[in-house]
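The instructor's notes for this session suggest beginning with a concrete chain rather than abstract definitions. Hand out the sequence below and ask the class to guess, before any prediction is shown, which regions might be ordered.
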Amino acid sequence: MSRFVRHLPIGAEVQPDGSTHFRVWAPDPRDVRLVLECDGGRSRDVAMTSEPDGYYSAHVAGFGHGHRYRYQLDGELSVRNDDDANHVSSSFNHEAATNHKAVRASLHTCATSR
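After discussion, reveal the predicted structure:
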């Protein structure tokens, strides 16, 4: 059983502690990364862990409500993100992590984890 609170099988879901759990279904790529969009136009990519049945996941502390992210599949940024993601606000090529309580987190994760 997962230690993360999930309402949907894929998407970004802010956890009770303010961290975010990301999950995507990508059965064909061999390398799936999460690209976190940071302030100042910087980004940070995080390797996602392979799960059974073609899913990948990552857990990121300090990256929560409203922060933008994308997926990178075998070295190429995805054109579309989670169509069924939990409560995301979309713009072209980006998703923003949100939750029901609008938990705020700082961009400290991007600044200190390069």
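Then share the key points. The longest strand covers residues 20-25. The longest helix spans residues 108-112.
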